[in-house]
Write a structure and sequence with these properties.
The protein is mainly α and 83 residues long. It has one domain. Helix content is 55%, strand content 0%. It is built from 4 helices and no strands. It is globular, with a radius of gyration of 15 Å.
Amino acid sequence: MNPLPWNIHREGRRWTREEAECRLYQAPEKIEFVGGIFSSERERLTVLAMILETMGIDKVVEFGKLEDWKAAVADRERKEMGS
């Protein structure tokens, strides 16, 4: 099964049946703690994207310092404008 592109927005949403089947296929089989949660960056990014799709970006910015989020967004904007 080919992975679907991530569909992350400010508000979270429920997956369609097709998305749920695809996402569960993409998910790591188990949680392993090897120098952190999950054994590879790809697994960590997959789980993060799954959470972002279902919870939304607005929930994420409740964690951490607002100035750090603003600085990260500003850095990404600079990189995109430079490419």
